[in-house]
Specification:
With 348 residues, this protein is an alpha+beta fold. Helices cover 22% and strands 37% of the residues. The strands form nine sheets. Strands 11, 13, 14, 15 and 16 form a five-stranded antiparallel beta sheet that branches.
Length: 348
């Protein structure tokens, strides 16, 4: 017991002497190396400062990865999936709260500029519209019915199919069926074409046979004569073409409108007539064309006439009634006396 007390007293004495001499505890060489390496090792675990990749991003796969949303993360961290991508044509809004939680979960330093900061994610996609489908159906049916002018009408006028892919992708029509009696068709639109992950939608509609008819390009006033450059052709559904409309361009050119005609609307046969070039009781010019001479005199029309009509004219000088052919507005051609005599002899 006495020996133990003496040893402890000696130890305390040595410690007091050391303190009185101003000495301190120093780490050994191995400890010094560990401390020096400490801060450098800790830097590898410090949060990494990053920024948003943008307020709107587009992804081309079913998953949203960290690198799609944040810029500045290392490659391994950026490859982490953080959300499911929206369906083609839809949007996914990642708000400030979600962004903050996601950054912290992956040891990234990021703070929103405000509570309304967000990122809108869209899926890379292309759209198959109504006109695309109608054109494809028309082309396929035209192969079955060559030489027939067809028009295709989808029942769903607002049809739009969003499919994952880019602008170079296309679509296919599957199981196209057509009833020639009811003129109805059905098909399945698949996009992208040939893909095992294609988006599909069923469509149906009706097929119309078309017929081209001449119509005025512009409004035509009553009495106005239709010229060739006033006429254009439009396609109408066969079952909507009235039986008594003009179907040939030549049937309208040179005709005078009986009533006002609307631009783009079919013209009935009764809406046009040959224009009157020589009104009754109007003054006209009688033209006599002989082999070596041309004579003209004034006369009064006893009949009205159009191009090519034979009318009676009173010669103002001789008061003789002669017959002539209407050749232009206010002009009537008469034959020389010898020719008239030959015509009468031939008739008799």
């Amino acid at each position: 017991m006495i020996r133990t007390v003496l040893v402890l007293a000696a130890g305390f004495a040595l410690a007091a002497a050391s303190a009185a001499a101003g000495g301190e505890s120093r780490p050994n060489k191995e400890s010094a190396v560990k401390i020096a390496a400490g801060p450098s090792s800790m830097n590898a675990f410090e949060p990494r400062s990053i920024t948003l990749a943008g307020s709107g991003v587009t992804v081309n796969e079913p998953l949203v990865r960290l690198g799609d949303v944040f810029a500045g993360a290392d490659a391994k961290t950026a490859a982490n999936a953080v959300a499911y991508a929206p369906q083609p044509g839809k949007r996914l809004v990642l708000d400030a709260q979600w962004l903050t939680r996601t950054a912290r979960r992956h040891n990234l330093v990021w703070q929103p500029a405000g509570p309304n900061e967000h990122v809108v994610v869209q899926r890379q996609s292309f759209v198959v519209g109504r006109e695309d489908v109608e054109g494809r159906v028309r082309a396929l049916l035209a192969e079955r019915m060559p030489g027939t002018d067809l028009a295709v009408e989808l029942f769903n006028a607002n049809f739009r199919l969003h499919a994952a892919g880019d602008a170079n992708d296309t679509f296919a029509l599957e199981d196209l069926s057509f009833d020639a009696v009811t003129r109805r068709f059905e098909a399945i639109v698949a996009a992208p074409a040939g893909s095992t992950m294609a988006y599909r939608a069923r469509v149906s509609g009706r097929v119309h046979k078309m017929f081209a008819v001449p119509v005025p390009k512009r409004p035509i006033s009553k009495g106005e004569i239709l010229r060739a450059d006033d006429i254009e052709a439009v396609r109408l559904k066969m079952d909507q073409v009235p039986a008594d409309i003009a179907v040939e361009r030549d049937a309208l050119v040179g005709k005078a409108a009986v009533r006002g005609l609307r631009a783009g609307h079919p013209v009935f046969a009764r809406d046009g007539e040959r224009p009157v070039l020589v009104p009754k009781d109007s003054l006209v010019t009688l033209v006599l064309q002989a082999t070596h001479m041309r004579l003209t005199v004034r006369g009064k029309a006893l009949d009205q006439g159009s191009q090519g009509d034979v009318v009676r004219i009173v010669n103002e000088q001789s008061k003789q009634v002669v017959e002539g052919t209407v050749v232009a507005a206010g002009q009537v051609a008469v034959k020389p006396f010898g020719a008239l005599a030959e015509d009468r002899a031939a008739t008799n």
